[in-house]
Design a protein that fits this description.
The complex is a heterodimer of chains A (167) and B (348). Chain A is built from two helices and eight strands. By secondary structure, chain A is of the alpha+beta class. In chain A, the strands form two sheets. Chain A has a four-stranded antiparallel beta sheet, with no helix packed on it. Chain A has a four-stranded antiparallel beta sheet with strand order 5-4-7-8, with no helix packed on it. Chain A is rod-shaped and about 90 Å long. Chain B has 348 residues and is of the alpha+beta class. Classes of the chains: A alpha+beta (167), B alpha+beta (348).
Chain lengths: 167, 348
């Protein structure tokens, strides 16, 4: 190798000897922690499922082929029940409730409340906290795709005590 | 050294070299895919293939970058240098397979042209953890393609040596891009310390080898000063083994003083082919033979035997008091210089 090439090699390697270790250190240090499914399972396990056959109001979930029923109250746990959605083709859907309608483009509203995971075969029954249910919106959200799948308006009427027939 | 260019100048050594390389790559891919299917059975076969080809390519690049400095440190590695360009082309093909599979897997099923998607799907250049690492791979692949496409003496001659060498020194840029491609890509998701450790170890190995080889080479660049009559005292005659040379730095460049058949001649130590170290070669069939690729030069003239036309500069040489003295002023390449006879009358 001629002298000028040796110098060029030396300059190149010396530069890499400084740049590469710094770049490697920076890239490894900047790694973000990955969210694990275990956290979500624990979170979902904390949400109690509602008792069966809770009577209440029933409404159709538009475009989903499913029905939404809200019932309970007056001493009984207030629940929302979603029948199995035959037209839903997402494996990773969660049910949220929000007091405001989510925007057409964008993610979940900031104060959306997670109710639970949707089972495609059995549907879902979810207990509703105080102040949740009437006058808001139920949202189906795909966790894997990070997008809203469908929105349904919850019945505007206040929840009636048990006595009405289910849908 | 052919008068006409052929795609590959096959010989037995090249066939063995290529067979070993191909077998090695095939074995690596098989072992990697088998092991990853066992350890990560939930990943798809496409993922296993992408990782197998990717790791094979970067491993090959580390081997390729190690050959040069290893050959300077220990001559036993010189046989690996002989056909290194085949290794480089193989590495490019493996890297291309990795890139093609990754493009199909991650960019083919959208509504955007997959090549456009590779270049435009991630624009988060201001983030380290979400940096568009695929762009780094694309750039490196482009460099490797240029190198693979010009890995032939045809291009060395027609691009001229300085241009060709500059192009092929881009391998260091490609290497840096690929290290960052892995660090900002795979290692952002894979938290195994083993993977990070392997990448760091490989990088340190390549850099350390180059720095060690550079330190050894610097010793050979210490220039010798001429005496009163402008001749430089290189060494004692007996310091030069038969059919071998002594290398010295004279007037800014290295010269080789060969001893053969009771005579001594001096010529440039820089092979005209790819600047190999002629002085580390030996005289075979009456010709100085470059240890890198076997290019030959007559010691008296510095010219390749016909029909070849490579030439290197020659230098006047004399023997006085058992010492070899060389005039640092070179003659034009191919100029005949009468060799000094070892046992003949000494110069005044």
């Amino acid at each position: 190798m001629i002298r000028s090439l040796r110098r060029r090699h030396l300059f190149t390697v010396a530069t890499l000897s400084i740049v590469l270790p710094l770049a490697l250190a920076l890239s490894l240090r900047s790694r973000q922690p990955e969210p694990l499914n275990d956290d979500l399972s624990q979170l979902l396990a904390e949400i109690r499922t509602a008792p069966a056959d809770a009577p209440g109001e029933t409404a159709a979930w538009p475009g989903l082929g499913s029905t939404l029923r809200i019932g309970g109250g007056a001493g009984e746990p207030r629940v929302v029940e979603l029948s199995p959605p035959p037209r839903l083709r997402r494996p990773d859907v969660l049910l949220y409730w929000s007091a405001t309608r989510p925007p057409d483009r964008g993610g979940l509203p900031e104060r959306a409340l997670l109710l639970g995971r949707l089972d495609h075969e059995a549907g879902g029954r979810y207990e509703l906290p105080e102040g949740v249910g009437g006058g808001g919106f139920f949202i189906l959200y795909s966790l894997g795709h990070g997008e809203i799948v469908s929105v349904a308006e919850s019945p505007a009427e206040p929840l009636a005590p048990s006595g009405g027939s289910g849908g | 050294m052919g008068l006409r260019y052929v795609a590959v100048g096959w010989n037995r050594q090249k066939r063995i070299y290529d067979a070993v390389v191909l077998a090695g790559v095939g074995l690596y891919l098989a072992v990697f895919i088998g092991a990853s299917l066992g350890l990560r059975s939930n990943a798809t076969i496409e993922t296993h293939l992408i990782r197998a080809f990717g790791t094979a390519a970067i491993l090959l690049l580390h081997v390729i970058l190690s050959i040069g400095p290893l050959s300077r440190i220990d001559a036993r590695f010189l046989p690996l240098l002989y056909n290194r360009r085949h290794l480089g082309v193989t590495m490019f093909v493996v890297a291309l397979a990795h890139a093609a599979l990754a493009t199909v897997q991650y960019h083919l099923l959208g509504n955007v042209n997959p090549l456009v998607s590779v270049l435009s799907s991630n624009s988060r250049v201001n983030s380290v953890s979400q940096f568009p690492f695929e762009l780094l791979g694309v750039l490196a692949l482009a460099i490797l393609f240029l190198m693979a496409a010009t890995s032939h003496d045809f291009w060395l001659a027609n691009l001229t040596a300085p241009v060709w060498k500059t192009l092929h020194m881009l391998v260091y840029v490609a290497y840096a891009l690929l290290v960052l491609h892995v660090a900002l890509g795979l290692l952002q998701a894979e938290r195994s310390p083993l993977l990070a450790g392997l990448l760091i170890a490989g990088t340190m190995w390549v850099l350390a080898l180059h720095l060690i080889a550079a330190a050894r080479e610097r010793r050979g660049d210490r220039p010798l000063e001429p005496s009163d009559d402008a001749f430089v005292d290189v060494c004692g005659v007996d310091d030069i083994p038969e059919k071998r040379a002594r290398v010295a730095c004279v007037a800014g460049e290295r010269i080789a003083v060969f001893r053969y058949d009771g005579k001594v001649s001096a010529l440039s130590s820089v092979c005209q082919h790819q600047n190999g170290p002629l002085g580390e070669g030996r005289v075979i069939d009456g010709c100085v033979t470059c240890p890198w690729h076997g290019y030959q030069y007559a010691p008296e003239t510095g010219a390749s035997p016909p029909p070849f036309d490579e030439k290197v500069p020659t230098f006047d040489v004399r023997i006085r008091g058992g010492r070899v003295l060389v005039d640092p002023r070179p003659h034009p390449p191919g100029t005949r210089v009468e060799p000094s006879v070892v046992s003949g009358p000494e110069a005044p």
